[in-house]
Amino acid sequence: MSFSSEIKEELHRMPFHRECCLLSELAAFTQTSGSLGFLGGGRFTVTYQVENAGTARRLFRMLKEGLQLSPKLHVMEHRRLGGTRTCVLTVEEADAIHLLEVLDMMKTESDGRTTLTRTLPRPQLNKQCCRKAYLRGAFLGAGYMTSPEKSYHMEWVSEDDTLAQTLEKVLEKSEIPLHTEQRRSHTVAYVDSAQQIVDVLAMMGASQAVMEMENVRITRQIRGDANRAANCDIHNTGKIMTASEKQLAAIARLRAAKVLPTLPPTLREMAEARLAHPDLSLEELGNSLHPPLGKSGVNHRMRRLMALSESL
User: Fold this and answer.
1) In this structure, which long-range contacts are made by residues 76-84, counting pairs with CB atoms below 8 Å and at least 24 apart in sequence?
2) How many angstroms separate the most distant Cα atoms in the chain?
3) Is the peptide bond prior to 291 cis by the omega test (within 30 degrees of 0)?
4) Quick one: pLDDT at residue 190?
5) Which end of the chain is more exposed for a tag (fewer CB within 10 A), N or C?
6) Chain centroid, CA 268 distance in Å
């Protein structure tokens, strides 16, 4: 199961605490997955199409238990698309009118006539709980997230920019910037910062996904620190070997010119120590002497040897 599917499975189990939150989540479903049908004679249908069976069950419960409607559910199989299935929920007749009324898409006049006020719901986003519910419904209806082990990217795809505009208002309250782009004929809204994605998951109520992502972030950080340390060690080793090669070449010139035996004992000891240990750092070279010598002392003596070699 993909990480995105795991998030949705966790969200499917979220309870319906308040009617206002249920309507906000239902408004998001209607924006992302719903369509309005006109049957004539003042009759309407509202149809939802979702690919995830768990999402279809949650939406069915929202309509059945939350609003006491009687939605019809059937499954369509697409043979040309590799046998993928789409769950279709249909709300008809009086139930459809009631649904449109509670979503503030229709009003009933005093004479009993119904008037369609808008083709998409306008969710209530004044309360924080309703904003979280809307965000949850939007992700279930049109959201996707890549595995955090590969990259940090969460997105919502819609046919127009209405969803992106509403999501921007929701996330703006939490100071989370939302980016948008056009992908073919669709508008894609996305968040690509690890911390911001964690904040979005927490807002939706996906606590288990938050923990899993934090574990991945820690693992990636430890792995990155280890790689940087290894690269640093390789770089430092290269510097040590380069310096050692120059020092060995200088000592070889002093030996060839028969200057080495005439040097003071301290410099002669240093030259012999470098010849015996060509791969040691200056600090390690100083510890090999008797008595041990500090790094600055080793560096000073080595500079004197280098200067004598250059003067030849």
Assistant:
1) 84/51
2) 120
3) yes
4) 95
5) N
6) 61
Q: Which amino acid is at 147?
A: S
Residue with tokens 């996904």: 209
- What gap in Å lies between CA 48 and CA 35, rounded to an integer? 6
Q: Which tops the pLDDT comparison, 92 or 234?
A: 92
Which amino acid appears at position 13 of this protein?
Answer: R
At what angle are helices 128-142 and 3-12 packed, to 10 degrees? 130
Burial of 11 (0-12, 13-18, 19+ CB in 10 A): buried
HSE, CB side, 13 Å, CA atoms: give it for residue 269: 15
Q: Helix, strand, coil: what percent of the chain each, to 5?
A: 55, 20, 25
302 backbone dihedrals φ, ψ, rounded to 5°: -70, -35
- Predicted TM-score of the model (pTM): 0.69
Q: Which helix (H) or strand (E) holds 150?
A: none
| Inter-residue contact 22 to 16 (CB < 8 Å) | yes
More confident residue, 45 or 80: 45
List beta partners, residue 47. 35, 90
Q: Give the Cα separation of 284 and 277 in Å (integer).
A: 9
Name 70's Cβ contacts closer than 8 Å, sequence gap at least 6.
64, 91, 95
Give the number of other CB atoms < 10 A from CB of residue 157. 18
pLDDT at 174: 87
User: Per the structure block, which two tokens stand in for 191?
Assistant: 């968040």
DSSP 293: -
How wide is the angle at C-alpha 86 spanned by C-alphas 80 and 90, nearest 5°? 135
* Tens-place pLDDT, residues 140-180: 999 999 998 888 999 999 988 899 999 999 999 889 999 99
pLDDT for res 129: 92
Res. 95 pLDDT band, cuts 50 70 90: very high
Q: State pLDDT tens for residues 212-253.
A: 888 887 777 777 666 676 666 555 555 655 777 888 888 888
Provide the residue type at 50 as one letter. Answer: V
